[in-house]
Write a structure and sequence with these properties.
Elements: H1 11-20, E1 29-32, H2 39-44, E2 50-54, H3 58-68, H4 82-87, H5 96-100, H6 113-131, H7 137-154, E3 190-194, H8 198-201, E4 209-212, H9 221-224, H10 226-233, H11 260-271, E5 276-282, H12 289-299, E6 306-310, E7 328-334, H13 357-362, E8 370-373, E9 389-394, H14 397-408, H15 411-425, H16 432-443, H17 452-459, H18 486-501, E10 504-508, E11 522-526, H19 549-564, E12 568-577, E13 580-581, H20 583-592, E14 595-603, E15 609-616
Parallel strand pairs: 1-2, 1-4, 2-3, 4-5, 8-9, 8-11, 9-10, 11-12
Antiparallel strand pairs: 5-7, 6-7, 12-13, 12-15, 14-15
Helix pairs in contact: 3-7, 3-10, 6-7, 11-12, 11-18, 12-18, 14-17, 15-17
Length: 620
């Protein structure tokens, strides 16, 4: 049959990719998560003993399942060949297809009345055989798959069922023949089927290889194939439209929407139980190659990542033969263990600990229930900590509100908001006029009325995407050479998902105000400004406290108090920078017998190197 996005032309490329990775092994399970017409799953049924298929559309699951298990259909209980029976008969039935999809009793011209009556006859007989237990489940699905194939041969459409042709196509005038669906002459030993939206079941499906072929345009498959869904469900739905479509709301896919596809892709990679992921995607799709790569490298092992462009000699999509306009990508990655995945803040925060999060996690105490990120900043540390509850704190309420905004706002709506503001002001890389207008708009609001989403949108186009205010708390970062690119989009989506899924509390204030939240089951992490370095948040000129010897001494005293209470803490700090050494820090460490974990030189946003350490008061 003719099917949108059919991958029959590239199955050999998928095979070659998996073969190169040493993954053509019978003992592995292969999950075709958007099975469609089943061409990929049917191809691989001889290479894997366990095939799993899923699709949001019922007819797709039935059709694909029928193809895959065709070699198991003997019709021994039926006692005769159903193909000969149907094709030797002239019987018709004036059922739902006849009345609604032919001009017999409607104005719709999907089928001639003669063929529509035959289709109703085929459908009722197959259902009767099943209800009388004369055919097995495999045989039932196989016959329905053959019915779909036969219907496709005489449909008066341009290939899909979103609409019918106004004049009869020559093939629609031919008498329908009940024909066998194409299928590889190999047995599918084990088949598991799902009929769901993949994002709703991904965390329950056990598999080794996950193959993804999601929609990539606004075309809704439920709309294009409504008639086949009605044919298979055989439920005589209420229809009133010109096209005779059943309600498509249950069949609608968010993969066919800008940004929602990105959000769903992140969820699939984060939740799947598969070890390997293969993705087919078109360059016309909502997700860019850069976004897909960033996502796969976050959840997968970067050294295993593959992106292969399929040439038009090997691949022709259904709507174009222009090799310069349309082509197909094949992506592959071996996934990391879930515990090895690290997330990054969508804020380009000065002093970010994104480069040392693995060190922080590996040197954390063995047992704690609560984690406190006392100088939360961009939250690169707290977002990667596993604890029953996590408290974020920062003295700068603008920063706290920014981080919290990713939790309290729906991610899709947040992205639409960014798009609206970007379009409203014409924000783009290095466009100073547009940037200043947006910045002035933000600053025009009273401080307690400023929307952190607006601030974030402006930050994206500012100098190094920094968060910088003046003494009057007006945002004053100048325009920059950056923009809301796909790498930032990936960080925002993955960060937003995690921050919504876990228990986080957000506070604004001094770290010392958190003392009532701290007990012996708490691990407190401190990442204060460094006395040897200066950023826009600790120079004392932005309407917030800076950092000096007095504040450093107060922090050391507070840590000593935690130590006396046997509360585990970790301090990130700089011992040496640009030839200067923090002697006060060294004396404090030595006098209290704290442990120092050297991390070596860390390269900051500006490219400068600083010698960072972790200081802890417990055994590591």
């Amino acid at each position: 049959m003719r099917y949108l996005g059919n991958k029959e032309s590239i199955v050999s490329e998928i095979y070659s990719l998996l073969s190169d990775k040493g993954l053509i092994k019978k003992e592995l399970s292969f999950f075709d998560a958007f099975c469609g017409s089943g061409s990929v799953a049917d191809y691989f049924k001889e290479y894997y003993n366990n095939i799993i298929i899923n699709d949001n559309l019922t007819w797709s699951v039935v059709y694909a399942g029928g193809r895959l298990r065709s070699q198991h259909c003997t019709f021994s209980k039926l006692g005769f060949d159903p193909f000969e029976y149907f094709n030797c008969s002239d019987d018709v039935a004036h059922g739902f297809i006849y009345k609604n999809y032919s001009p017999a009793e409607s104005s719709r011209m999907y089928f001639t009345p003669e063929n529509a009556g035959r289709i109703d006859f085929f459908r009722s007989k197959i259902e009767g055989w099943k209800n009388s237990s004369l055919i097995t489940k495999d045989e039932y699905n196989y016959l329905l798959a053959c019915l779909i194939e036969s219907v496709s041969d005489v449909s008066n459409t341009a290939g899909v069922y979103g609409a019918f042709l106004k004049k009869w196509d020559a093939r629609a005038l031919k008498p329908i023949v009940f024909d066998r669906v194409d299928s590889k002459a190999k047995k599918c030993h084990k088949l598991s089927t799902f009929n769901s939206k993949i994002e709703e079941i991904i965390d329950t499906v056990e598999c080794d290889i996950l193959y993804l072929d999601p929609p990539y345009t606004q075309n809704q498959y439920g709309t294009q194939y409504h008639l086949l869904e009605t044919l298979i469900l055989d439920d005589n739905p209420s229809i009133s439209t010109v096209t005779g479509s059943r309600s498509t709301a249950p069949m609608r896919s968010d993969w066919s929407k800008e940004y929602k596809a990105n959000i769903l892709f992140d969820r699939i990679l984060a939740k799947t139980k598969a070890r390997y992921v293969v993705l087919s995607y078109n360059n016309d799709g909502f997700m860019s190659k850069e976004y897909i790569e960033a996502s796969m490298k976050r959840y997968g092992k970067p050294e295993t990542y593959v992106c292969k462009k399929i040439s038009y000699k090997k691949y022709q999509n259904w709507k174009s033969n222009n090799p310069n306009a349309h082509f197909e990508y094949l992506f592959f990655v071996e996934l990391k263990d879930k515990s090895d995945v690290l997330y990054e803040s969508p804020l380009n925060y000065i002093g970010s600990k994104s480069k040392i999060v693995s060190d922080i996690r590996s040197h954390a105490p063995a047992h704690y229930n609560r984690f406190i990120d006392a100088f939360g900043g961009g939250f690169n540390v707290g977002i990667n900590i596993s604890a029953d509850s996590i408290i974020y704190n920062d003295i700068n309420h603008f920063v706290t509100e920014l981080v919290e905004s990713f939790k309290v706002n729906d991610t899709y709506q947040y992205l639409l908001y960014i798009k609206r503001i970007t379009n409203k002001f014409g924000l783009e890389k290095a466009n100073a006029e547009a940037y200043k207008a947006a910045r002035a708009y933000y600053n025009s609001f009273p401080e307690d009325k400023r929307d952190p989403r607006l601030l974030y949108t402006i930050i994206l186009y500012g100098y190094q995407q920094q968060i910088r205010f003046n003494g009057s708390h007006e945002f004053n970062n100048p325009v920059g050479m950056r923009w809301f690119n796909d790498k930032v989009l990936e960080k925002m989506i993955s960060f937003s998902r995690v921050i919504k899924e876990n228990d986080y509390t957000f506070k604004t204030g001094q770290y010392s105000d958190l003392l009532s939240q701290i007990d012996n089951n708490t691990f407190v992490y401190f990442d204060p400004p460094y006395k040897l370095t200066t950023g826009s948040y600790n120079d004392g000129k932005r309407g917030f406290n800076g950092w000096n010897d007095t504040l450093e001494h107060e922090l050391f005293d507070f840590l000593n108090r935690l130590n006396e209470k046997k509360i585990s803490f970790m301090l990130s700090y700089v011992i040496e920078h640009k030839g200067q050494t923090n002697e006060n820090l060294i004396r404090w460490i030595n006098s209290n017998h704290y442990k120092t974990i050297e991390l070596g030189d860390i390269i900051g946003i500006s490219g400068s190197r600083r010698k960072e350490v972790l200081i802890v008061n417990y055994e590591v």
